[in-house]
Amino acid sequence: MGKNTLKIIAFFIIGMVGGIFADQIFWPYFIERPLFNKYRLEQAPIYVTEKKEVTNYIQENTALKEAVAKVEKVVAGVKTKAENDLVLEGSGLVLTADGFIVTLADLVPQGSAFAFYVNEKWPAYQILKRDLKENLALIKVEDGKSQSSGFADLEKLKLGERVFLVGFDFSASTPQRVVNEGVIKSFNKDAIQTSIIESSHMAGSPLFNIEGNVVGLAVVDGEGRVSAIPISKIRLFTGF
Q1: Which CATH number fits domain 73-141: 2.40.10.10, 3.60.15.10, 2.30.290.10, 1.10.510.10?
Q2: pTM over 0.90
Q3: For range 146-157, the mean pLDDT
Q4: Cβ neighbourhood burial of 15 (10 Å; 0-12, 13-18, 19+)
Q5: Same topology for domains 73-141 and 149-238, yes or no?
Q6: According to the model, what pLDDT value does residue 8 have?
Q7: What CA–CA distance (Å, rounded) separates 165 from 135?
Q8: How far apart are CA 86 and CA 81, in angstroms?
């Protein structure tokens, strides 16, 4: 009985040692021989979902940078000294290559002194018309060649769609372009509400979609919330 037990234990130990040897030494060495290369199993790739999310984020940021570069020169700065010495600052949209600009009527009240910053210059100008009800004004600047942007199709506008503003900040000696982004919160034929919060100096700034097409013209309320006059209204007013 004792001898049989010892034999069983011995066989068990020998088997265990042999298994370890085969698994750790013999099989790894053997499988690396050229004869077995064609039978080798490749490890299945491991996909990490975070990688896709990071890639999408990078692509979205690249698209935004490209869109901003595309439209930054179709934005005009507007600076006004009103009769009561109040200084108004904002922006407008260059509609055509020959210098037609649309901005908010609030930024160019009658009886004021105006200045328009286009293509890094302060050109001569002419106020063509105002619509106080729709809060729009059309200006022609004598600037020679300018750039213009395409118009968005508002019938394709979606809730949550990514949009951005480009305007001017006049706090430095030379006006500087400013960008802010957000999404469409709600919209109808009269107004587009965004998630963007801004200071009043961004009033009149063009609102663009991620393709660089104009969605509207920004209006900033007393709490900094940005809405926009839709491009459909702007085209109706200007005739472009």
Answers
A1: 2.40.10.10
A2: no
A3: 88
A4: exposed
A5: yes
A6: 62
A7: 18
A8: 6
Q: Which range is most confident: 39-48, 108-117, 145-154?
A: 108-117
Distance in angstroms (rounded) separating the CA atoms of residues 93 and 182: 19
The sheet carrying 136-141 orders its strands as: 113-117, 75-81, 87-94, 100-103, 136-141, 125-131
Which phi and psi (to 5°) does residue 11 adopt?
Answer: -60, -40
Q: Which of 138, 118, 113 is nearest to 127 (CA)?
A: 138
Answer whether residue 36 shows pLDDT above 70.
no
Structure tokens at 178: 């400013």
Please, what sign has the CA dihedral across residues 56, 58, 59, 64?
positive
Q: If you ran DSSP here, which 8-state letter would residue 174 be given?
A: S
CA distances to 92, 95, 162, 226 from 139, in Å: 10, 10, 29, 23
Extents of the domains making up the chain? 73-141, 149-238
CATH of 149-238, one of 3.40.50.300, 1.20.120.1770, 2.40.10.10, 3.40.50.2300: 2.40.10.10
Instruction: Tell me whether strands 75-81 and 225-230 are parallel, antiparallel or unpaired.
Output: unpaired
Tokens linked to 38: 């064609």
Q: Take residue 191 and report the two structure tokens written for it.
A: 């107004």
Residue-level pLDDT at 1: 54
